[in-house]
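Why do we care about 3D structure at all? Because function follows from shape, and shape follows, mostly, from sequence. That is the central idea of this module. The next example makes it concrete: a single protein chain, its amino acid sequence, and then its structure expressed as tokens.
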Amino acid sequence: MKEVVVVSAARTPFGKFGGQLRDYSAVDLGTMAVKAVMKKVDIDPKEVDELIMGVAVLAGTASVASRQILFTTGLPPQTSSLTIDRACCSSTTSVAIAMRNIQAGETNIAIAGGMEAMSQAPLVARGIRWQGVRLGGLMLEEPLFMRNPIVDIPIAVGVGEVALEHGISREDQDLWALGSHEKFFKALEAGKFKDEITPVEIQQKNSPSVIMASDESPRKNTSLEKLSKLTPVYGGKTVTAGNAPGLNDGATALLLMSRETQEKMGFKPLAKIVSYANMAGDPLASPYMPAQSIAKALKRAAVGLNDLKRIEINEAFAAVPLVSTKMLGDGDVAITEKLRSITNVNGGAVAIGHPTGASGARLIMTLIYELRRLGGGLGAAAICGGYGQSDALVIKVG
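And the structure:
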């Protein structure tokens, strides 16, 4: 099969719920990321064979979002497009489908990523079409409540229970969350996010526009004391608003090509995608599924854990990288701590934010740029998805 390389990667800053990006739709945000990824390498939109974008929360309202983005970015209407909903795995799965199409020789150049405008998630009024509004008013449903419909409990409650089963305490999760913010600001001060973030110009009524160039959610003044005082959400045991990410807005995009096409067109590759794997388990398996998908991707790449210089595991909750690294370490404390020392070294979603449809591709580009700063090597990026799913990729730079 053909080798697949990433030649460009870009994202918007990630906005907090009701923040600076709240007036932009998922299509608006996806448009920004797709335009940015093409502009970085000055590729003619006519050269792109396929656009695949993920969206989760707004999958039902941003109808065929990828098809809409074709027309807002200058991609020809004849370009193939696909919109993916695989919960938080959506953008990673989009990258994987694009990769497989290129490997199979069906396409040569693809853009893949994802977007989410959680600030624009509509409230749901079930049954009103047939029942109308009766005395007592109208009951609205909040789709952002994030409930696991299979076991009928909030996702955060289930994650907390699984974390405790694996020996991950509330304090462990708060410490990881604090570290996520601290590592983010250290990376920000070093200018590391300039590689991946394309600033957004925010138009304002009756005042000059402002430039948003950084993620909006990270909290510089957080502390372990503040985190420890927060009450667990939804009556759970360990997960709080402090050791979980917020509800975020943002978009990501990667430009992928076959190695042959990249060389022919004279582009410089950022990285090679070595392998991809997806896994699924029981409905509450999400905290440890990234470990299983990483192990599967490593096996497909014929490399081991010791070969990895960096790991990105999405902090859907602080518990996820903690449980997954412990599982990858197979209970060995030294190995687990070593894995954690190379995981999310520039902070993770607890600080940066988690626009569900976009986060997977953010992990990939963050990993690529970090490996490049290290001079090359192998890394793995993994993300869990709703009700016991996970995707992982092994990336090589150099």
